[in-house]
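As a point of orientation, let us examine one representative protein, giving the amino acid sequence and backbone structure tokens.
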Amino acid sequence: MKRFISTIKNILSIEELRGRIITTMWLLIIFRLGSYIVLPGLDTAQLTGGATGGFFDIINSFLGGAFSRASIFALGIMPYISASIVIQLLTIAVPYFQRIQKEGESGRKKINQITRVLTIVITFFQASAYIAGTIPSEAIMIDRFFFTVSAMVILTAGTVFCMWLGEKITDKGIGNGISMLIMIGIVSRFPGALIAESMSRGSSLLLLFLLELIALFFVVMGVILLTQAVRKIPVQYAKQVAGARGESGSAKKPVVGQRSYLPLKINSAGVMPIIFAQSLMFLPSLIGNVFADTSDIANYIATNFADFTSWQYNLSFAVLIILFTFFYTAITVNPKQIADDMKRNGGFIPGVKPGEPTAEYIDNVVDRITLPAALFISMVAIMPAFASMAGISQEFAQFYGGTSLLIMVGVILDTLQQIESYLLMKHYEGLMQAGNVKGRQNVVTA
């Protein structure tokens, strides 16, 4: 505890870090306040929470309930994420975007600008679908056409403002701004879910509630291990000679080649496989409901896939996650480019020839580490279903796995690493300012 308090004091003593933390907190507060401002022209008493289902529940949890409240931030940052995914896929499949990506800083600015424009376009379409599908007619107190047009404009402006908040947090605050906005929406629901779960257990079942918290702790530890785990491939760099002769005329000795490691993350795909799989899991129940009156099979599909605790739902969900994990890893990790960069810098893997053999070796390693990662991600994704079947409330069970837990762990770890880097820089500055580390001065005499 003493070390923790000392670390907090060190964090607050760094002026730049303290300013970034305060800026981040203020921008997150603005985001949370905006999520409670309802669209003008609506009767909040008539709002029923809109459409429900696996995909809609995930969006609502990402936005901290703004989706179900018909807030001006009802779409939040989700259109920007959709646009980013589209652009990321285009940079792999379309040569034009590949050329832009290779242009360095200027190319990155072009891609960011294209992403922003695409975000506005996507937001308009999603806003119209949101108004038509989630807001009941009896809740609209003004002319329907005027409300639709004004709400589309407001929702689009709200998404653009959320995007601006995310960029400001990235530039002036701590952590990745877009990820921080998603995380704060998820975390905002945790205290309420925790209190509701503790109240439902009561004093007679206090031991059971403590066991739930212990189980949650071990699940979080497992996700942290998955997020931080890497496979290190040893890399040797060739020996180099700085010059042919030294000052005394004797030949210089070659510099010993450096030895380092190529770190490959066990879970290179992150949370994207769960997001992709979850976005497809509402389709079977949707299609089944359309044909439920005419087919017993369709009725069976609609019934079982609407229940996220059914074995049919969870088996299909796990299989989709495994497939998407391999797919997303394949498009994000390019063994050939890694091998080419390594060869260009004079590096090689001991026992493996540079070039194509190195690319094949890295590809084989990626395939071997992706399989256990895919299995573990699928287990984490279906963990809330098991928690719900064990008697835990559905709202609290969401924190036992799935996209929410992976995002929270990833964002928190990334933020802590940035804070740690500031502490290390301050530590080194303190050493130099204290005079413990001094450089030698060379005096040249005539």
User: Anything to note?
Assistant: Confidence is low (pLDDT under 50) at residues 428-446.
